[in-house]
Amino acid sequence: MTHTPSTAPTGAIDTPVDDRLRWFVGTLNRVVASTADTAGTFGLMEQWAPRGFSPPTHVHHREDSAIHLLEGEMTVRLGDAERRIVAGETAFLPRDVPHTFLVESDGAHFLEIVTPGGFEGFHIDASDPAPSATLPPPGPPDVPRLLAAIGPYGAEIVGPPMGHSN
Predict the structure, then answer these.
(1) Tell me: domain 21-159, CATH 2.60.120.10, correct?
(2) Distance between CA atoms of 156 and 34, rounded to whole angstroms?
(3) Is the pTM of the predicted complex or chain greater than 0.90?
């Protein structure tokens, strides 16, 4: 199936609605391939995020990750370094290095891969089923929920999102 997703910050996103769509910390997220699907070798998530979205700075201790930007622009912070990426570019985020990113365009559509797999479970545990293929209503992240969910996945939140007292 081919579709062209919209990165508009409001309204419907052109993607099939299924039970894998989740509202995750201000984004629309879909686990495309889980550790169960890949014999543990990787996890793959597809995400849509609005302008200004930035997850809390966090560090993975078990897996490497990468973001491949399909649409939009973002600034990626890896340790103390920042790099702007645009559609078609990939940012590699090695384990044990704190990272975050900030969506600089009207919206962003990207893939996130983790290897080995497993961290995609955090995206499920810290999210809610999306009732539609839209971004969730704006609002602050549920930090206590994130903190409670992230520990079992060998990761930790170590700082604020970009643009929030950093």
Answers:
(1) yes
(2) 21
(3) no
